[in-house]
Amino acid sequence: MPEVSSALSLSTVVLFIPIVGFLAILVFLREEQHTEQIKWTALGTSLVAFVVSLLLWIGYDASVPGLQMVQRNDWLPSAGISFYVGVDGLSLLLIILTTFIMPLAILSSFRVHVLEERGRQKLYYAFMLLLEFAMLGVFMAQDLFLFYVFWEITLVPMYFLIGIWGAEQRMYAAVKFFLYTMAGSILMLLAILYVGIQAGTFSLPDIVAGIQSGAIAFPMDGVLSSTQSFLFLGFFIAFAIKVPLWPFHSWLPDAHVQAPTAGSVILAGVLLKLGTYGIVRFCLPLFPEASVAWAPYVAVLAIIGIIYGAWVSYAQKDVKKLVAYSSVSHLGFVVLGIFALNAQGIQGGILQMVNHGISTGGLFLLVGMLYERRHTKAMDAFGGIWKAMPLFGGLSLIVVLSSMGLPGLNGFVGEFVILLGSFGSSVLGPLFTLFATLGVILAAVYMLYMFQKVFMGELDKEENKNLPQLHWQELAVLIPIIIAIFWIGLQPRPFFDTMDASVNQVVEQVHPYVVQAENTAMLTVDEFVQTAAVR
Amino acid sequence: MENLPQLVPLVVFIPLVGMIINLLWGARLGEQWAGWIGSGAAILSFLVSFLLLTYLTGSNYQSVVVNPPFLDGWLSIGSINLEIPWQQRVDTLSVTMMLVVTGVGSLIHIYAIGYMHGDERFPRFFAFLNMFLVFMLILVTGNNFLMMFVGWEGVGLCSYLLIGFWFDKAKGVGWKNSLAARKAMILNRIGDFGMLMGIFLIFWTFGTLDYYKPGEIANVEYQEHLVAQLTGEHGEAAAPAEGEHGATTTEGEAAAPAAEGEHTEAPVAEGEHGEAAAPAAEGEHAVGPAIPEYVNNDHIATDQLGVFGKAQRMLEDGAEVNFGVVSLPIETVLVLITLFLLLGATGKSAQIPLFVWLPDAMAGPTPVSALIHAATMVTAGVYMMVRSNVLYHNAETTSLVVALIGATTALAAGYIAIGQWDIKRVLAYSTISQLGFMVAAVGIGAYGAAMFHLVTHAFFKALLFLGSGSVIHGVEHGHHDVSHGHDHHHDHDFDPQDMRNMGGLRNKMPITFLTYLVGTLALAGIWPFAGFWSKDEILADAWLSNTAGGYVVLAMLVIAAAFTAFYMWRQIEMVFFGKPRTEAAEHAHESTPAMLWPLVILAFFALLAGFYNVPANAGPFTIFGFFEWLFGGAHSFTVFLEPSVAYAHAGEFQGGIAAVALILALGAILLARRVYGDNKSVTADNTDPLYVNPATRQIWSLANARLYWDETYNRLLEQPFNAIGNFLAHTLDWTFWHDYVHEKVVGRGFNALGDLLSSPVDLGIIDGIVNGLGRLVSWLAGGLRRIQTGYVRTYAITLLLGVVLVIIILLLPMLQSGS
Predict the structure, then answer these.
(1) What is the ipTM of this complex?
(2) Is residue B213 within 8 Å of residue B87, measured between CB atoms?
(3) Which of B138, B146, B166, B167 to probe by mutation at the A interface, max A CB count within 10 Å?
């Protein structure tokens, strides 16, 4: 059990920094007079959050698996609900990812036309910070109920970001996004209530400890009809919709295409990871037996997603939609890694969450920059942009290569470790990996198609010939992404070290059931051989 | 001396610096500086490689593993002992590749200064060339399969960038170039799929991806022989190699497996015991290299061995490998591994079935074709298989497949080359064909011969490509001069690469002609040029393999060799002999010295490189031992490779086969001279004499159509792929799943539910709260039908209030605890 303290912890500080900026903007700054101040307050707040979150990383002792920087205060003691936050190796990197992406998303909004046109910048930046708060809350919450509250709060600002500052069909996309996620969340709420009431507490570490000691048990006596399976699915479907795992992805292209650039960046960069993170944080430790039982089925969906997402991506004409569908493919890898249920798979999965945030976030930023210049996202409108904007073309190429997993860049490290894990996994194995690895080919197919359509070929369209070069603010947004791409690609060690102990703990929690499943499988083979011998 | 291997990171680092300089400041530096910085980096890298060679020759070819500075390991997951470091390997195989890559690379860099003169992206070109060197050198110096894969993909990227270098050319040419670039990358990715699967299998079979751990001996036989020899020389001074040194060794790694995990520390020359153990041994034998400490790897625990050492031990033990519920014998696993790796090799080294990208890759500037698509990158697949010779040697099934793929490719590509008009395309198919020879050599177990042909081919094929570049340049300039003198009537559609537009260039471009002739003779395998020796060694080994497969391969390769001589002489006749067929050819003139010097140097090596590995007892072919005497012994190159390539062996010379092959090649040249000589190389209606002749029309047309290979792929793979993609994206995902299921079915369901819950005709069971919820759902669902921003505002405020409320509730307990 982690050392629990009710004193203010560093994680709480990081969590509430965005709220300080949020309130400051709401209370002190006025839309008309203080537009510049609003922007810079938002950016400053998010930068402070980033710096302090780095302190969190520095102060984190990676050799200890459990929660650190814990704070726990009673909230609704009678129901066993508490304000309980902390970080560990599973969440720390995603917290850093969030605080890393937010300043970039905010800075990239400074020069966006749609904000000038539609106004309400105060509300916009306030929502950005509120969103950051909620996302950090999801990653830090250690109480099921608290987690659910944060989970739902993330919907609200995102809903408005799409709904107010989005493209032509923004309301449709916003409502769909909201409803779809809501539908999953309701199942999760029911599961949370059941678990909490059964266990007598909503504190995740307490419940997991109870499960480990045998004090709490969710019966698992059949894949389809047992309590544990239902609970697992309650959580899992909510997460799967968020990821989105195929076939729950239908909200994603709408949300991505309609959202303003920063909205897409945050959506791809962080929000989708709430789902995959939730699986690692809740599904595996709470329902280890069900996780093992469902792993092959989930992995099949993940692999379908990898191939389907890539294939559909390739056939798009809208560059933003292409990138949106690529997320379905990429996150398929993440889910596959998680359900390999071994250290390689899960660590690769978590690292790939970070990588996808950086690469796909970067792609959306690039698409946004193109959109600002040409006011279109149709690939046919471009061609030869590399010649018109050489630096932009070069930087785009790096991000594209990172996204398609070129070794030496970040995407490869995650993908490779995931596939390595799934290959050696006793619940998945080589055949799963064989099909998933096909996704590596397809990634090159759609990414290079996009790069060729937009950046290569003759610069023959008049409108493209005099595009303005990158503004320093745009460069300031892209440079950190490029640095991160190379850093993780060449020296991923600090990232693996950070999560190693915590992931190992999760693997240990699931391990007995993996062994059990292995033995059953062996037994079936033996039985098969025996019956064959008898005949 | 013993610290020389520590320089190996520089081989990669120097071109990296060159690349960065040219990328960042190239435009400001101007052509001259950019060109010479790029070339200088290549030359410096070559010098470092040469120093490494001197180290090896001075240390009995003991290999060394080096950890580059600044990089703290790579992929490492502590809890499960996953450790894949950035680690380089200096041994005879890697140094051979380094010398070829940087040596030929340097010449091509210099050539490119002349060739790319005036290009608007001149500095970027050199940055990309340097980047290619970086990745190619990572590929060949890495000490594990993953580093090889980094280089593997990296050179693929450079190939992509350089094929598409002129991505913006007018009239759709730019689009075609970038299409060729994409095609190359994607076909290579299909190969990479195989590489990845192979790597996964290797990891889960052997628990590591390192070729050899520091201190491990690659070729035990060689080591035993060496130690016996040295012991003999030094008399009693040298102690028996085994056991005794182990106790007093000054080196951690090899002697103490326990210390293994540490090789991510500061760079230490771990591998070579002889040198590092020197302090103790120095006094005893002051002269001559020290005696290696170990003759074999018996002192290393199995789980401390690299992939190849462990494979050998597992084979000895007859081990079974367990993958989940499946358990396979090690022999079967090796077959699987090598087959997957082979898929990778067919991509990178342009073999059937993935070779179709290489002819299109000629869209890149000619120096690129020479460096990447002829001399170095495309040989990576061969290098990879030679590096994995332990695996291939022990996977007989795969070896047969490899041999057949190589031989078939050699034959098919050689045949297609006969029917091509584009000067570079002929060379491209020739490259595919020659790579087929190397791959076939690997298949029949002739790893030394494969590497030998790789080296000689690098010289003469680079020479031919650069020569063709010089020709194209000359014709282009001729065309330029003409069209400035005349009206622009016959302009723009003029193709300076089409051999029909050439002819009679031997007088206009004498140096280009002579060097090209040398390259042609070398490629055709004419005695005593380099190609004769290397090709003959492959043929001899095929004969010696003494299997049905070997004979089939031999027959195919001999025919392919005859094709080679034929299409090359056809080219010589079309380009250099006869009368100029266009005004452009009439006005063509010789290229600048920067382009000619590399040709001359390469011609020198195309002539002489073969002597380095002349066979023993070759009778008249070596002028009864004269060449051996002159060039320091028979099979020097194979002997040089042996310490790092366990199964490299020198085959015995087969005089009969050499004679037959030589006669066939000469016959093919004479035949080509008969068909194309005397100004008949292109007929009046601008086609090939073979097409005009009814007897050969079909055969030539089929070659001209490239066996319809591309068309078949297009119809069977590309079109269905696109069609399925469109169906998935537009019909299944959008019309059905997005619009129908979600909009109609689910959307209506929500509406119906909302209406039911919020209708005034309530069922009475639902109380006010649920009623309100129902309204909310109804309203949200309403958004699906009509969008009314008025609702949004009220909703916004409601939700915002809710959020603030939640925050207050969240903050409350903290306020309490604070007080």
Answers:
(1) 0.93
(2) no
(3) B167
